[in-house]
Design goal:
This protein is an alpha/beta fold and about 325 residues long. It has eleven helices and nine strands. The chain has helices spanning about 10-25, 25-40, 50-55, 100-110, 130-145, 155-170, 185-195, 200-215, 220-225, 250-260, 280-290, and strands at about 60-65, 75-80, 85-90, 115-120, 150-155, 175-180, 235-240, 265-270, 330-335. The chain has a nine-stranded mixed sheet, with helices on both faces. The chain starts with 9 loop residues before the first helix and ends with a strand.
């Protein structure tokens, strides 16, 4: 599923032409060609040099899930720290757990036990196809192993999966999304724009997708929409997005927050889609969110809009004054 912003190379362009031409004659046939692409994963990205020390310290194991093909997949799980509060991390499409390396170090320093996984076809987990159902099943497997989750943090596609998993019944006390789309419809719309096929083929793909992966469900897109099916009442939500994210539209954070009364948003500037995971204002906001003694026990600090100083950096990271990046925070933890 090469969605939102994946490079459209010559091969993909050629396939798009095939889907368009076939779909013009038979939308169902065009959809049959497009569906496998929607679930296909690129070759795993390498572990970054700065991420390697953190990954080397991880305790590795696996959890078994049915997987997209329902034939079974052993998902690689990483664990750091030994605290009593378990925080689960979910990477995005074509990402991997190692992208959370900086956040992992912060969370472990705060006394949390941190667990993350590589979804099928990502990182060290085998496979070449996957979809939201695999992320959701991975969350369920972590729940069975670790019990109640103090928090779950999802980036991009993993943020969408985190919201769905919580709404599906995975017991999570707090949720953080970073650069997340608001529902599966967003992905289908962007996939159509990428391959440029017609609306009739898009409708046929939607039907084929539902029949293939969610057989028997009257409206699987309701299940896959945190807008239509928000978090259970009482679960605090922090939704983070960067103003210059070129992959997931900034407006998605407003859709997520609007569907969850009481949610807090953090909109940053200059970090983009991936670097936002390592941004000091984001790390500070996440640590503050997870430090709340009980869900809803206190209101997270509010800060002013563009031009204000960002949240203070923690001593474990700070090498410069807190005002070092005065324009990177646009809106910080504004209650919705």
């Amino acid at each position: 599923m090469p969605w939102i912003g994946e490079a459209v190379n010559l091969a993909l362009s050629a396939v798009g032409a095939v889907v368009r031409n076939v779909g013009a004659l038979s939308p169902r046939a065009g959809a049959a060609i497009a569906l496998p692409l929607f679930a296909r994963v690129a070759a795993p990205r390498p572990v970054g040099l700065r991420e390697q020390p953190t990954m080397a310290q991880a305790r590795r194991s696996t959890v078994h899930i049915p997987g997209l093909a329902r034939t079974g997949v052993d998902v690689v799980v990483y664990e750091w720290g030994r605290g009593d509060t378990v925080v689960a991390l979910a990477h995005g499409w074509n990402g991997r757990a190692s992208q959370f390396a900086v956040l992992v170090r912060e969370l472990v320093a705060e006394g949390h036990r941190v667990v993350a996984f590589d979804a099928p076809g990502h990182g060290e987990t085998p496979g070449n196809g996957t979809y939201l159902i695999d992320w959701i099943e991975a969350f369920g497997a972590l729940q069975r192993r670790y019990g109640r989750l103090h928090a779950a943090i999802g980036h991009s596609f993993g943020g969408l999966a985190t919201l769905i998993a919580a709404a599906d019944g995975v017991v999570i006390d707090r949720v953080v999304t970073v650069a997340a789309p608001a529902d599966a419809d967003t992905l289908l719309i962007q996939f159509q724009a990428m391959l440029d096929y017609g609306d009739a083929t898009a409708a046929a793909l939607r039907t084929r997708f539902a029949e293939r992966y969610f057989a028997g469900e009257a409206d699987p897109f309701a299940r896959l929409s945190p807008v239509r099916r928000p978090l259970p009442a009482g679960i605090p939500l922090l939704a983070v997005h960067d103003e210059r994210d070129r992959l997931v539209p900034l407006g998605e954070v407003s859709r997520i927050a609007s569907a969850n009364p009481g949610a807090h948003t953090l909109v940053t500037r200059s970090f983009g889609h991936n670097r936002v995971l390592e941004a000091d204002p984001v790390l500070d906001a996440v640590i503050d969110m997870l430090a709340v003694a009980k869900p809803g026990a206190r209101t997270l600090d509010q800060n002013s809009i563009a031009g204000a100083s960002p949240l203070p950096t923690r001593s474990s990271r700070a090498k410069a004054p807190a005002t070092a990046r005065p324009r990177e925070v646009v809106t910080t933890l504004a209650a919705r």
